Amino acid sequence: MNLRLLLLRISAAAFLVPGAALALTPTPSTTEGPYYPFNSGQTLSTAWFTGEAADNDLTRIYSTSTQCRGTIMLLSGTLVDSNGTPIAGGEIELWEADNGGIYYYVAGTNNYAARDTNFQFYGKTTTDSAGAWSFRCIKPGLYTGRIRHLHYKVNVGGSTKLTSQFMFAEDSASFSGDNVASPLVAAGTMSLTTLSPVSGTDSAGNAVIIATKQVVLSGTYATTPTAEAPLITTAPTAAAVGTGESVTFAVAATGSGALSYQWRKDGVAISGATSSSYTLASPTPSSSGSYTIVVTNTVGTSTASTTSSAAPLLVTTPTALSTHALINLSTRAYLQSSSSVLIAGFTVQTADGKKTLVRAVGPTLSTLGVTGAVADPSLEIYNAAGTRIATNDSWSSSLASTFSSLGAFALDAGSKDAALTVTLPNGGGTAQVRGNAAGIALVEAYDADSATPSSRLTNLSARAYVGTGSNVLVAGFVIQGTGGKRILIRGIGPSLSTFGLTGLLADPKLEVYNAAGTKIAENNDWSSALATTFSSLGAFSLTAGSKDAALLVTLPAGASYTVIVAGVGTSTGEALVEFYEVP
């Protein structure tokens, strides 16, 4: 079970009751040390310690990222006052060194460059009604001058009540030489801070060490629970559907009390929409708008709310194929080396051939503000049988008028970009782009005889390496005509293994944007309900339960769209993006 879901997220207004008898020895305080991320000595941005990156799981910065190095430790306990009464709503902050003894601290100090970039370093949690708290962390690494230790703070009612450290009983032989442990030994309170972990397993059966500790605050506390704003773990996602096509928005959230829900459209509450999901069974264009949900947490008489990010809905009425067509595909991707290849595919429905302009752009991208572009791309065209039918290394200026007539941006005069026109036979073909070295390249295919309705592009695709940041796979397409066009879009990684490909993107996600840069649809994991659509279009099947992405959208014609294929978290690898015309 995820530790985040184990914690009740409530806060407390607390006050010290004077004159109470003290039954338990309070946990001793120790020095804060220089590595608390919010102290005045820090120069790194603490904005990093927000949201999921400030939870109680320090072993991963985000739930989808790679686990850090080191021995995983499940650390838990209770927070009580001197009478042993549980303190609800107390905030516990924990920070520690990574497996190599390095803290998240000022860059250039403490061997900072060698830190474990998958380790969260800092986390926090809130005690539940029984005063319970827990962390998933690691057994910290050693560094010169100190024994192993974890730092923590306890905050109650908005103020810090205790700053201390957990140390390990197994290091007792070194206590006398440690400047923090030795005073505690002399005072006879060392046992109140030491941990004695035992071997065990977590809920997934992984080997871990397990440690527990009670933390005692001096005095007695009366707590009045107040609701803390719920944490939305899965927000509703954007959608673009056809008139009458059912669409469902859903949210997942956690909170300590009873959660209630209210969906809104364009900021106005929707009557009766008070569950964690909201379905429009038969939407119309008037249903288009911005959908959000307000999640409210109730503890006693106290309430607190969180509003989700907006999920745009675009509803368009589909029209006949004769009213619109796919006329342009462009894909930008990162070529890892001179041996890497960016592959674009086109499926053509034609009796007499489809005249197509194909370009491989590198140097001119620099003029457009793209850094790290390929200096000298080459272009090869293959027919459906795999026979090479055209090649180009450096474009001819005689094509400049063709660029202009098709609305393609101009290439720099004398540049090493590649371009050619080719007549593709029925069935289509592929374009392969290579570079003279690593860098970003753009491949484009333009329908050069779009006025011929019997000849059309029915499927466009591109396969390339998906990196992070600006090196994700970016594909664009243009729909010519009027009305609404249904398009199947797929972002495929894992299922490519059935074709013998390796080094694949393990968990791709799709995002669709309009020309204004507004996200209008997205998908992370495909739905098996689309399997029949794949089959009807001749698209290969995806592996059942795979992490591939796919969605069916209905989009207004006469516009351009952009699709981004990226890996969930920081994952990278080869991926395929596809666009299918849907009758």
Explained architecture:
Mean pLDDT is 87; it is low at 1-21. The chain has an eight-stranded antiparallel sheet with strand order 27-24-29-22-31-36-33-34. The longest helix is centred in the first third of the chain and has 7 residues, at 181-187. It contains five helices and 37 strands. The protein is elongated. The chain has 583 residues and is mainly beta.
Q: How helical, in percent, are the residues?
A: under 10%
Low-confidence stretches: 1-21
On the 0 to 100 scale, the average pLDDT is 87
End-to-end CA span: 44 Å
Helix- and strand-based class?
mainly beta
Q: What is the count of DSSP helices, taking H or I runs of 4+ residues?
A: 5
Main-sheet strand order equals 27-24-29-22-31-36-33-34
Described by strand count, sense and barrel closure, the largest sheet is:
8 strands, antiparallel
Quantity of strands, as a count? 37
Approximate shape: elongated
Q: What's the gyration radius in Å?
A: 30 Å
- Measured by DSSP, the beta-strand proportion falls in 35-45%
Topology:
Blueprint: H1 3-6, E1 10-16, E2 72-81, E3 91-95, E4 122-126, E5 132-138, E6 149-156, E7 159-168, H2 181-187, E8 194-195, E9 198-201, E10 207-217, E11 221-227, E12 231-234, E13 239-242, E14 247-250, E15 252-254, E16 258-265, E17 268-269, E18 277-280, E19 289-299, E20 302-307, E21 311-316, E22 324-335, E23 342-349, E24 354-361, H3 363-367, E25 378-383, E26 388-392, H4 400-406, E27 418-424, E28 429-434, E29 439-447, E30 456-466, E31 473-481, E32 484-492, E33 508-514, E34 519-523, H5 531-537, E35 549-556, E36 559-567, E37 573-582
Parallel strand pairs: 2-10, 7-8, 13-21
Antiparallel strand pairs: 1-11, 2-5, 3-4, 3-6, 6-7, 9-10, 12-15, 14-18, 16-17, 16-19, 19-20, 19-21, 22-29, 22-31, 23-28, 23-30, 24-27, 24-29, 25-26, 25-28, 30-37, 31-36, 32-35, 32-37, 33-34, 33-36
